[in-house]
Write a structure and sequence with these properties.
This protein is an alpha/beta fold. It folds into three domains: about 1-25 and about 270-440 and about 485-530, 2-enoyl-CoA Hydratase, Chain A, domain 1 (Alpha-Beta Complex); about 40-260, Alpha-Beta Complex (2-enoyl-CoA Hydratase, Chain A, domain 1); about 440-485, no CATH class. Helix content is about 40%, strand content about 20%. Strands 1, 2, 3, 4, 5, 6, 7 and 8 form an eight-stranded mixed beta sheet that branches. Strands 9, 10, 11, 13, 15, 16 and 17 form a seven-stranded mixed beta sheet that branches. Strands 12-14 form a two-stranded parallel sheet. β5 (about 175-185), α6 (about 190-195) and β6 form a beta-alpha-beta unit. The chain is globular. InterPro entries: AcCoA_carboxyl_beta (IPR034733), ClpP/crotonase-like_dom_sf (IPR029045), COA_CT_C (IPR011763), COA_CT_N (IPR011762), MCCB/AccD1-like (IPR045190).
Length: about 525
């Protein structure tokens, strides 16, 4: 039998404590998500509504097929920065006329929808996802262009936004812009470079320079409508392909455009799948609050894969890394999950072989992180941990099948790389609120700095200040702890979102469906030199 048996004691004290700790973290996460949902706050939301306009997420809801999910991406972008949480734009994947699309929507309640540095990073990440998965892009535009005080951080890299639109179009990936208000300066190029553009009567304003700028630059007197209104662009300039009478009509027309795209998935949907044998609610009590305490990742796997059915690969070899085959919402996946945290030589070699097998079979890979990194020490160095770790990283870096990563617990050091961290281009990467990621654990990092400082003082023949050392260690530990938390990392777009563990199966299912819009093909050779 390959159906996983669960040993989770849901009535035990450990489970209860783990669950309580994670629920506390989810409460804090909800509070931060609420900031993104609030946009510019009550004052600017009320002003926007008084103009008879819909909010960004309301526009998305009307665009999507009824009763279909929307997978919002990077909702905590800009968290911990000087800019509002959410970065004044909503991005995500949803279904329009049966077609999975990448949707972006400016939030005009936040500084008129102006783009700040985190807006740019968030949109560029959305474009990456659209390109890799061949998802049509629908831009719901209402933006005054760059947030001018931050122009030095936007202007040069901002050109990549327009480059992406043209490259998507060149790759045969449709791009659609629906303009709800101002789309000025650089923002004018979004409708200008999209395949299809919808504008709204007396609402859409698209121009490179508004009347004040035109007056300053040329001395010409003009008004919004003659300079860049929807009627002018529909009848005179030809920039508007479709002319709508209001927002609802514009969204209806956008849906009709998608319906006529003839855009098809490379792989058909697999149909209904058997749910796991165990309750997703139980995922809350698996990961310990103290990540130094190991847990069995099979308990997680049993609650996210179809029928809790998992064929383990090399179960007795390299036991601190669990590898095996399963299906998730009907899609085949190969899973790599850290068991005891540390990666040894055997685990590294096992991972490299497993990744090659997945590429031979065109099967996407799912990485479930809980690792402190590769093992250190004289015995392990002499045993070849560097070359074996490099073998695993080589395999991950050159694998061509789509990768999905979920940070469950720790994800430290080169172990983060070997398990397909952000730098290794997973198609999607999410984190649980229990996760932490950094170059190493706070205590270890502070301890290394202390040892180095102590050795330096000794080499110079100077006395060592123990009191200052204790203060330094405490300060460094606090800094690294705060910088390794999921909200901090998500704010910098090092993941695509921090998710409720109970939603893991649904989120991964939506991602796998999006992934299969594009061809899924593994590497046939093409790996670097494996050091044996």
């Amino acid at each position: 039998m390959t159906v996983l048996a669960s040993a989770l004691d849901t009535g035990g004290a450990d489970y209860t404590a783990h669950r309580a700790a994670l629920l506390d973290k989810l409460t804090a996460l909800d509070a931060e998500h609420a900031k993104a949902l609030a946009g510019g706050g009550e004052k600017y939301t009320a002003r926007h509504r008084a103009r008879g306009k819909l909010l960004a997420r309301e526009r998305i809801e009307l665009l999507l097929d009824p009763d279909t999910p929307f997978l919002e991406l990077s909702p905590l972008a800009a968290w911990g920065s000087d800019y509002p949480v959410g970065a004044s734009i909503v991005t995500g994947i949803g279904v329009v006329e049966g077609v999975e699309c990448l949707i972006t929507a400016n939030d005009p309640t936040v500084r008129g929808g102006a783009s700040n540095p985190w807006t740019l990073k968030k949109v560029l990440r959305a474009n990456e996802i659209a390109c890799a998965n061949r998802l049509p892009v629908i831009s719901l535009v209402e933006s005054g262009g760059a947030d001018l005080p931050s122009q030095k951080e936007i202007f040069i890299p901002g050109g990549a936004l327009f480059r992406d639109l043209t490259r998507l179009s060149a790759a045969g990936i449709p791009t659609i812009a629906v303009v709800f208000g101002n789309s000025t300066a650089g923002g004018a190029y979004v409708p200008g470079m999209s395949d299809h553009t919808v504008m709204i009567e007396e609402r859409s304003k698209v121009f490179l320079g508004g009347p004040p700028l035109v007056k300053m630059a040329t001395g010409e007197e003009s008004d919004d409508e003659s300079l860049g209104g929807a009627r002018m662009h529909a009848r005179v300039s030809g920039l508007a392909d479709h002319y709508a009478v209001d927002e609802a009509d514009a969204l209806r027309q956008a849906r009709r455009i998608v319906a006529r795209l003839n855009h098809r998935k490379a792989h058909p949907d697999p149909g209904p799948a058997q749910p796991p044998k165990y309750d997703a609610e139980e995922l809350l009590g698996i990961v310990p609050g103290d990540l130094r305490t190991p847990f069995d990742p099979r308990e997680v796997i049993a609650r996210i894969v179809d029928g809790s059915d998992f064929d383990e690969f090399k179960a007795a070899y390299g036991p601190s890394l669990v590898t095996g085959w399963a299906s998730l919402h009907g899609y085949p996946v190969g899973i790599l999950a850290n068991a005891q945290g540390v990666l040894f030589s055997a685990e590294s070699q096992k991972a490299a072989q497993f990744i090659q097998l997945a590429n031979q079979r065109d099967i996407p890979l799912l990485f479930l992180h809980n690792t402190t990194g590769y093992m250190v020490g004289k015995e392990y160095e002499q045993g070849g941990i560097i070359k074996h770790g490099a073998m695993m990283i080589n395999a991950v870096a050159n694998s061509k099948v789509p990768h999905l990563s979920v940070l469950l617990g720790a994800s430290y050091g080169a172990g983060h790389y070997g398990m397909c961290g952000r730098a290794y281009d997973p198609r999607f990467l999410f984190a649980w609120p229990s996760a932490k990621s950094a170059v190493m654990g706070p205590q270890q990092l502070a301890g290394v700095l202390s040892i180095v400082a102590r050795a330096s003082a000794q080499a110079k023949g100077q006395p060592y200040d123990e009191e200052a050392d204790a203060g330094l260690r405490a300060m460094v530990e606090q800094q690294i702890e705060s910088e390794s938390l999921p909200m901090f990392l998500s704010g910098r777009l090092y993941d695509d979102g921090v998710i409720d563990p109970r939603d893991t199966r649904t989120v991964l299912g939506l991602c796998l469906s999006a992934i299969h819009t594009a061809p899924v093909e593994g590497a046939r050779g093409g790996f670097g030199v494996f050091r044996m």
